[in-house]
């Protein structure tokens, strides 16, 4: 199902049990068979939902109905929403979108559908960033400096490595939450 998976550690059994019936069976199988780690050449990370749940609830207008599943190399969070949709929160751009309805083809499409990868993942910039700065650790993301919302440019020259959770909190404190007017 997941090509080139690089395992970080096992998903805690209590998390698997907690989210059974709340996330698609495909996610439960990934947690059981692969655990936590990265795939798609390190661009996507399988995460423990509980590590990101509070953040998503506090910073995204659909946060209470979203279960965080993955993060991207640019600190975007991919969620399972309303027990039906795969969503993505683009914190760096204060935006969000729905990737797909249902999980049936997601894991095939991320490897085979150029339109999905081009619309939701910035793989070309990621490849340039890895070439310039090296691979990311599991808990890291490439962070725009200065933040895009503060006038930064979306360029490989304006990237730095940072802790994913810390970076998302920084974005939401300095630039704003996604879909929430403070």
TrEMBL record:
<dbReference type="InterPro" id="IPR015002">
    <property type="entry name" value="T6SS_Tdi1_C"/>
</dbReference>
<dbReference type="Pfam" id="PF08887">
    <property type="entry name" value="GAD-like"/>
</dbReference>
<feature type="domain" description="GAD-related">
    <location>
        <begin position="7"/>
        <end position="83"/>
    </location>
</feature>
<feature type="domain" description="T6SS immunity protein Tdi1 C-terminal">
    <location>
        <begin position="101"/>
        <end position="174"/>
    </location>
</feature>
<dbReference type="Pfam" id="PF08906">
    <property type="entry name" value="T6SS_Tdi1_C"/>
</dbReference>
<dbReference type="InterPro" id="IPR014983">
    <property type="entry name" value="GAD-rel"/>
</dbReference>
<protein>
    <submittedName>
        <fullName>GAD-like protein</fullName>
    </submittedName>
</protein>
